[in-house]
Amino acid sequence: MDYDRSILKELLSKQQWRQYKITGELPAGFVYPSQEPEPILTEPIEHITVLCVKFGNKYGVDYVEKLRNMVSRHLTVPYEFCCLTDDQHPIDGVTSIIRPNQGYARGWWHKVHMFDPGLGLKGRVLYMDLDVIIHDNINKLIINQGNKFMGIRDFNRKFNPTWNVLNSSVMSWPAGLHPDIFTVFQTDPKKAQRMHGDQDWIWHVAKPRITFWPER
């Protein structure tokens, strides 16, 4: 199989990279993410989970509450609002999924943990960053999506029509699918974090499976 050498260079240690260039063989136990089989949905989606992530002190509880309130105004189908967090204080109208803070140098890497199959998420997941602003109905982001992994084309390069890269601020996927985003990350988080951020990692692992929502 042909591997993307630029990606391998980011994920391997210097010694492993030198050895790979000499032998063409990857270290024992190394998993190249794109080799993971595309997941298959085995059960119909009957539940909607709206999910946010809050670790550390960058965003206060008020951000969770504001997002909860915006979703309640603009999502008009039944759903459960959940927050993956290290904060054990309950929030009204929010199901908190408590996990320890991993102490990542850049806190956004906790978003990778959304794909941990042990979280117990149900149905179809709609994830949104805490600083997202909702000003209109968002039903179309969550219904009739089948088993697709949906995301946003990176709007930071919106004037470049060839810039087809994920922005992870809003995503939707069937719960329980794409666990490799988490499990491969867990094999060596330090290597994975050589990438700039979680959205680069998610795009790297799941690129062939991600469909962008229409921009209009």
Uncertain runs are 34-39
Structural class: alpha/beta
Please indicate the percent range of residues in DSSP E strands (runs of 2 or more): 15-25%
Number of E-type strands: 7
Helical element count?
6
Largest sheet: 7 strands, mixed
CATH class category name? Alpha Beta
What is the average of the pLDDT values? 84
Q: Can you identify the CATH superfamily?
A: Spore Coat Polysaccharide Biosynthesis Protein SpsA, Chain A
Strand order of the largest sheet: 3-2-1-4-6-5-7
Give the termini distance in whole angstroms. 38 Å
Radius of gyration: 18 Å
CATH fold title: Spore Coat Polysaccharide Biosynthesis Protein SpsA, Chain A
Shape: globular
SSE arrangement, N to C: HHEHEEEEEHHHE
How many domains, as an integer?
1
Could you give the topology of this structure?
Layout: H1 5-11, H2 14-23, E1 48-54, H3 61-74, E2 80-85, E3 95-98, E4 124-128, E5 149-153, E6 166-174, H4 180-187, H5 189-192, H6 198-206, E7 210-212
Parallel strand pairs: 1-2, 1-4, 2-3, 5-7
Antiparallel strand pairs: 4-6, 5-6
